Every structure is written in structure tokens, then in C-alpha cells.
Amino acid sequence: MKRVLVCGAGGFIGHHLVQRLKAEGAWVRGADLKYPGYSASGADEFVLGDLRNQTFVGELFDQPFDEIYQLAADMGGAGYIFTGEHDADVMRNSALINLNVLDTASQTGCRRIFYSSSACIYPEYNQLDPDNPNCAEDSAYPAAPDSEYGWEKLFSERLYLSYARNYGMQVRIARFHNIFGPQGSWNDGKEKAPAALCRKVAEAEDGAAIEIWGDGQQTRSFLYIDDCLEAVLRLMRSDWTGPVNIGSEEMVSINLLADMIAAIAGKALGKRHVPGAAGVRGRNSDNRLIREKLDWEPTLPLHAGLAKTYAWVSQQVSAAQFGIAAE
Hints:
Blueprint (H helix, E strand, L loop, with lengths): L2 E5 L4 H12 L3 E6 L12 E4 L5 H7 L6 E4 L7 H4 L5 H21 L4 E7 L29 H20 L2 E7 L2 E2 L12 H11 L5 E5 L5 E2 L2 E2 H12 L7 E3 L5 E2 H12 L4 E5 L13 H7 L7 H20 L6
Parallel strand pairs: 1-2, 1-4, 2-3, 4-5, 5-6, 6-11, 7-10, 8-13
Antiparallel strand pairs: 9-12
Pfam families: Epimerase
InterPro entries: Epimerase_deHydtase, NAD(P)-bd_dom_sf
Organism: Jiella flava
């Protein structure tokens, strides 16, 4: 039986990944500061602890693991990443986690490790045109990420690649582009655009207006969680290191994203554009390399993923209004 360690198993992607690995028949140990927020973990063992603590990380590696997935990070949506208020914590916390997990893995004979990087590593100067952003993998340098979060992710990519060269680690690196779906943050200040807009639409009365940060013309692409997991596992079990984009090429403006969610909810809603952290003007996954190397592309259209996510967020909103817990 394959033995797997998932770091960040209490988070959105990590929680779903544990479920996928268990469905495949793996034995899974999850580790995080917190349990998953909306349903119990499927991990065989879930160890609560701080991955910034080297002693705790050492205790996690009390056995050989066939695969390690390092998803743990200090992160959130635009309201958390782009204000500048959390820069020191974001860089310190995530760097410590990566240093501890990677170094301990290398010292204990666990060779194969996946690292979740981010599209935030791409240069801001390539994302000024909302209609024509350049996020090809080879466009990462000269480096100029738009946030300290992006700089830490880029540093950690280089850290993992250095361990691959110097210590023989079998490293796999993916750059995630806005992964979304049920059971993620939706109201804690760390939610990303799909969940935030689903919440706003669910809370709004028909005919009202919802707030949109900036002019709403900024563009993004969004990948549903199930497609993300399939790409992660293909990469992990390939003989290719990456880095590679894992995302969708279905680019939309934030205004259009809001309209799509309102249509799913059956509401006619206006928009009230307000100042806020909007990030780069344009960002879209470039999937040419992952198609070539892994023969992968998303299977679920954005609208279908949003319908699933809105149904879940709407349930959370309704439960919160009546003071009851929702799954």
C-alpha cells in the first residue's frame, strides 16, 4: 500500500487531495495547524501541529513515505495578499514551512515531493493588458512578482530545484491558477474571487447591487478542484519536474464572473465598483506545456464548477443566517 504525507491537509486543496488519495487506496497521514473546516478529514492519521516548527516536522517523518505533497502556506485571496499588511508573516511562515519539510524529507530518505507554487510568481509587467496576459512558464524571468507572496513562491521553487540538483530529490512543481470549489474559505477574509462573489450573490436580494473591487475589467481564469487534483497526480507520477501551470484557459473578467454567478442564482443584480485589492490587470493559465508533457487539460467548464460552488456557498450563507452548522 502506498504511504503518503499531505502537508496542509486542513486546507482547501489539501483536504480534497486526501479524499482523492484515499479513494485510490493509499494510506494517508495529514498534517496541519487545523482540521478541515467543513467536513472531517479522510486521512488515516491527522496530526495537528505547526510545520514552522522543525521538531514537529521531524516527528512527522517517523517512517518512509512514497509521496509527499507540500501544500501548506500562509495564503489567501486578494484581500489578504495584496494589502501589504501580512507581507512579513506570509514570507516568513511559508519559507519556514518549505525549509523544514523539504530538508527533513531529504534527510529521512523520502525522495518524491510535490510543491504547490502559484501563478503569482509571474512578472507584473507581463500582466498589464487584461486581454493578453503572458503566463507561459518560461516568462517567469526577469522576475517581478506583484506581491511578496509571489516572491516567496518563486524563492521556494528555486529551493526545491536546488535540493533536486544537490541531494537527488524527485521534485515536482506546479503553479496553481485560482483553484476553486466547495469547502473552501468563503467568509474569513482569505476567500478568493469565486467564493467571495458566490457569498455576495447569495446574500443579496434580487435587484440589489453587489460590490466589486476595482473596475471589474481585470481578467482571470479559474480551475475547479477535481481537475486540479487530476493534474497534480499526473505530474507527481510522471518523470518530469516542471514547473508547470495547472489552471484553466477559460479567461473571464471579474464583472463577467459576477454575472455568471448571478445567473446561476437566478438573480438580477447590479454592480457597485469600489476601491479594493484587485491584483494584476490580466492573468490566464497558458496550458501548452502541460498538454505537451502530461496530455492534460481541464474537463469541467467554468460555469459548471461555479454552479457546484454556488450551491455549497449558498448553503453556508443560509445556515449562518439561522445560526446552524452546515456541511
